[in-house]
Amino acid sequence: MEQLKNYIREDLLDVRPYESARHEFTGTANVWLDANENPLATDYNRYPDPFQSDLKAVISGLKNIPTERLFLGNGSDEVLDLILRLTCQPYKDTVAALDPSYGMYEVLATLNALNYRKIALNERFEWNIDAVKAQLEGVKVFFICRPNNPTGNLFPLDDLRTLLQQFKGVLVVDEAYIDFCPEASAAALVAGFPNLVVVQTLSKAYGMAGLRIGMAIARPEWVAALNAIKPPYNISSLTQQTALELLRSSDWSTIRANIIRERERLEAALKASSKVTKVFPSEANFILFRIPQASAVYNYLTEQGIVVRNRSSQFNCADTLRITVGTAEENTRFINALNNY
Ligand SMILES: *Cc1c(COP(=O)(O)O)cnc(C)c1O
Prior knowledge:
Elements: H1 21-24, H2 53-63, E1 70-73, H3 75-87, E2 94-99, H4 104-111, E3 115-120, H5 129-134, E4 139-145, H6 157-166, E5 170-174, E6 196-201, E7 214-217, H7 220-229, H8 237-249, H9 252-272, E8 278-279, E9 286-290, H10 294-303, E10 309-310, E11 320-324, H11 328-339
Parallel strand pairs: 2-3, 2-4, 4-5, 5-6
Antiparallel strand pairs: 1-7, 6-7, 8-9, 9-11, 10-11
Helix pairs in contact: 2-8, 3-4, 9-11
This protein binds pyridoxal-5'-phosphate (PLP).
């Protein structure tokens, strides 16, 4: 892990991972008496594959990313937490994120006893890259969510390249929604930058939020370092098997295309509404829009049985609601309710 010595905690540079029975012997055998499992012959009496090889092989094929650049976690929330634990020294280091952005970054910073710096976006939720750079002094990890949640916009790949060349810390690019615009992924930059970790998930475009599978995409030395600190069996056999079957059996590009088509229909309806004053452009499966008295509109919608997210308390987000793209029928119910408000 010598290549990572500028980025990971000194005391974790040569940490000895927990050696489970399944680490020590991985070949074929008929009699498994090494892990204190119950010999009961059910589907789940054995510990899962700690490195999720079969699942990684399928994800690798789908996303065209070599398996040695894939690390899997129990949701990307676990991946983000492990990245902080690996890189930052508690009660000392500082992490940064854009504002507004995903609320989990601040929670994870707090849980890891880290200082948290917010870097403001402008009113259109864009950044000025020079202003961003000026605020990264002393920052160990910088989270960039692209497309950004809750705003839906995508920060340019060229700006990321500039940052990666100049920033001394680790850039964590959270691409939870990138599958809705896959050509723009920063995963293609991973090979060239030792300070880049891209995080993706099966929770959004792959419809598996309930299974909890997130991933880091980074150079193999990062994968090895994360493997060394993760809980040994962080993804259950049932989860690995179910995800494999779903990834193989569903037509994900059609599912994605339908969501994007529905997003465009919702966007058109919001723009046509006389009550909506601003519809923010989105590259994701949700849309942020501004509507006067958003909290009253929110309450009205819940009375109609429709729940959206009120983001009005976020920075620069006064009177905004975020709507997730649902089925055609759900979206139509929302549009009708809005038009009757
Ligand atoms: C939904 C979301 C995630 C996904 O989290 P999981 O733990 O993988 O379900 C990650 N980052 C952002 C910004 C999100 O909105």
